[in-house]
Specification:
This protein is α+β, with helices and mostly antiparallel strands. The chain has 6 helices and 9 strands. A 5-stranded mixed sheet has the order 4-3-9-5-7. The protein has a two-stranded antiparallel sheet with strand order 1-2. It has a two-stranded antiparallel ribbon with strand order 6-8. A hairpin with a 4-residue loop joins strand 3 and strand 4.
Length: 182
């Protein structure tokens, strides 16, 4: 059974440090599955608890042109949610690998709109300025239209100038030193 942990937004809003309760039966253990609450659920929870209704977090329409699968996805993402995670919650399959903003598997090129990606370590500032972004750590700031990129293309754009100097000459002496041969 897949047990998901609550997202940061749910942890902040719920502020419930209690761990989930386990229910036992004779032959198995059932564990609850966390699910992020929708804006309307959060508003109704706040009004039931007697608190002031929180202002709803704005959501933005995200359009992803998935070049590899030749399909277009459209979905809505709140400003405080990662685009990739929200897509997955809606059973939309997008490319990804590390989920931490360190690789370029989920790289996209922005066609229109804006997003924030303060944790995107896998994309250089130069590529960000050219409109590249990572969906796994991207928060929408407006309606957004993006196109998936081939990971190798993005990697080449980012590092190709370092490898484009031609083949590396073999240095047998350095190789012998590295291997410990004399």
């Amino acid at each position: 059974m897949d047990l998901q942990t609550p997202c940061n937004a749910c942890m902040l809003i719920n502020r419930n440090p209690a761990s989930p309760k386990l229910s036992f039966s004779r032959n198995n253990i059932s564990m609850p599955k966390y699910r992020c609450k929708t804006v309307s659920e959060l508003q109704s929870t706040a009004s039931v608890n007697g608190g002031a209704s929180p202002s709803p977090v704005p959501s933005h329409k995200i359009t992803v042109h998935d070049r590899q699968r030749d399909v277009v996805h459209e979905f809505y993402v709140p400003e405080d949610q990662y685009i990739l995670h929200t897509a997955e919650d809606q059973d939309i399959k997008l490319p990804f690998a590390c989920r931490h903003g360190c690789c370029t598997s989920c790289a996209v090129r922005i066609k229109s709109g804006e997003l924030k990606q303060p944790e995107a370590l896998g994309i250089s500032a130069e590529l960000k300025s050219k409109g590249y972004a990572l969906l796994c750590v991207g928060f929408p700031s407006s309606d957004l239209e993006v196109e998936t990129q081939d990971e190798d293309e993005v990697y080449w754009l980012q590092f190709g100038r370092y490898f484009a100097r031609g083949p590396i000459e073999r240095d047998d002496y350095a190789l012998e030193l590295a291997m410990g041969d004399e």
